[in-house]
Amino acid sequence: MKHVGIKIALFLNYFVFAFLLNSVGTVILQVQRSMEISKASASILEGFKDIPIAIASFILASFLPKIGLKKSMLLGLALVAICCFITPYTNQFWYFKFLFLMIGISFALIKVSVFATIGLITNSQKEHGSFMGIIEGVFMGGVLLGNIIFSLFIDDNNPKSTNWLSMYWLMGGLSLLAFLVLYFSILDETEARIKQREFKEDFKEMMLLIIKPLTVVFVLSIFLYVLTEQSFQTWFPTFYTDIINAPASMAIQAGAILGGAFMIGRFLGGFILKKIKWIYLLTTCIISAGIIILLVLPLANNMDNQGVISWTQAPLVVYMMPAIGLFLAPIYPTINSTILSSLPKHMHSSMSGLIVVFSALGGTTGSIITGNVFQRYDGFTAFYLSLIPLAGILISIWILYNLTRSRQIN
Questions:
Q1: Which residues constitute the domain of residue 86?
Q2: Residue 122 maps to which CATH number?
Q3: pLDDT digits over 317-371, tens only?
């Protein structure tokens, strides 16, 4: 297989950051339990993760190819490894803000570089879309395993226990492994570099890119999608503990099932895209996700809770809720691949920067809105509100489809 070394390195990078980024839902639940932090206050951790991603991506995207895509990824992995090894020695809310800030900056380096690298190691739109779907599927595999493993460190009977912090030793070790695999991999970055151009010219190119009609619609789609996805992923454990009356470890495992549904959905989406047009797949997925919300939340609301539940005695609705991930999953990699594969390879870094910026802003917005609605009203209201951005995504992808057909990006 061509580029096998660098592909394995990219998979490991995404797998590591799946653990780290999506641990925010577990941390939000744990700081509520062990530090008595309110939901609204805990939701700010998403901002400490996503805002640095947005700022760093905006600043770095246009000249990362000049620094070196491989060097940027190595720096990101080194930073998170150091922070993870420090985490078990701390148990303060302020440190988790710092931890997610560093994870955010590092992920900006990783994601922009990974997206730009995909363009270097693929040779067609189909190959690009397929690899994008696979790597996003690997990411969701990391979410799945991360939640399962994290749940093993949770002490349901002692909310004040710090055993769960030991998980970060494993995360630090995985970061080092990813660093070593990438270090010894070969990547030809020639096509990503534009010779004899200054930073201000590259930055101007990114600014001109964002005002194009196709790009505006695209980043709106990305923003709304991540807003919806992160609302579910971040607050799923809290929903299960507060609304369904599940123990903390089971709630985190429910997050793992949601991650598994996302993983399966992205792998299936990559396969189905070989058979039908992307717009038909995404339309079906969005409508199906909306139907699941309308069906499942009333069932959850009508549950007759008589004490703490477990997997063996849980009603069907407990297993049905994560199915929404199956249908949300194909949306993100498909629209990303659609836009990136339509651009010259030297512009992939700039567009990747825009993707990461608006993904981060969407994630923060979704988490904070959901956290505040969760606290002021309830989890049902918070999750019902996700129908609004879903409708917005449906409208925006059809506009995007019509614009890509007329190729207004050029």
A1: 4-406
A2: 1.20.1250.20
A3: 777 888 888 899 888 888 887 777 777 666 666 777 777 778 777 877 877 787 7
